[in-house]
Amino acid sequence: MATDLRPSRNGPQHPPAKAPPAAGRSLRSRLTRLDVKGAPYAFISPFYIIFAIFGAFPLVYTLWVSLHDWELASGTRKWVGFDNYKYLWSDADFWHATVNTVAIFVLSTVPQLLIALFIANALNRRMRVPTLFRIGMVAPLVTSTAAVAIVFTQMFDHDWGMINWALGLVGIDPIGWSTSRGWSWVAIATMVDWRWTGYNALIYLAAMQAIPKDLYEAASIDGASRIRQFWQITVPMLRPTIIFTTIIATIGGLQLFTEPVLFSVGTPNKMDGGPLHQFQTLTMYMYDNAFGHDRYGYGATIAWALFVMIILFSLINFLFVRRTGGTK
């Protein structure tokens, strides 16, 4: 007799067992979670990898070199500890170069940013062919630094320069631009200003175009002049941008190298910054010690001193931003 194996209708009903998830579906979900969580780190990793290779490692290695009496020609690798830093503190030539660097930085940065601010304000108004003038602001930046320095060196020549010729027309005696310490600062700062003023002007112009026009319309209705609108609306709204350009100009100004080197054309050693070191910057002094006198340990010490100076100036600017309300 055949037996009925079917379950009774009145008996307990059990849900059918679920099939185990497919291996492909599980792997796909894991890859999806990994993509969502790991993609941001993968996108930013090239910057940190390149920085670690070309930024962090040279910085740490330079610190290691600064603790040695390091010479390439003789192969000397003698540990001296902080002796290089002690000598740096009492090195008159180092402080002389520091004064030159800070003075040129101040003479170039302050006029540069002020002129750029006023140029950007003029370009922000309605004018004919504004694109042509805006492109003209970039022209000095794309010009070769060597060409700029050579032209300005000729202009500031003592005997045949155009600047002294123009001063002679109004009865002023020729100025020794390359022999006087103060005037050499002015000449080099002029080169820096001519090259970077347009760049900062375009940054200010982009920030000005983001300011709501309603603010100016309301100020005009209240009877505020354009000058008052500029100082009470434009400048306060540009505060974060002004701080940004100040920090960038600070970093570039303290690392000034090309302009003073090319300005010393005709001197036996261009890294001296003139016969009396009147415009020798810190980068020139560092280069002269490391590559000119084979004192790589002391050159690395100067490099680290310059790095600390840049950090201090950047911190001062950061604190100024917080104090003036540029950032929260």
Structure, explained:
This protein has 328 residues and is mainly α. Helix content is 69%, strand content 2%. The chain has 13 helices and two strands. Strands 1-2 form a two-stranded antiparallel ribbon. Strand 1 and strand 2 form a beta hairpin. Helix 3 packs antiparallel against helix 10 and helix 10 runs antiparallel to helix 13. The chain is flat. 24% of the residues are buried. The model has no long low-confidence stretch (mean pLDDT 82).
Topology of this protein?
Blueprint: H1 23-66, E1 68-70, E2 77-79, H2 83-89, H3 92-123, H4 130-142, H5 145-155, H6 162-169, H7 181-208, H8 213-221, H9 226-237, H10 239-254, H11 258-263, H12 282-292, H13 296-324
Antiparallel strand pairs: 1-2
Give short descriptive properties of this protein.
single chain, 328 residues, mainly alpha, two-stranded antiparallel sheet, 13 helices, 2 strands, 69% helix, 2% strand, flat, cell membrane, membrane, transmembrane helix, transport, ABC_transporter_permease
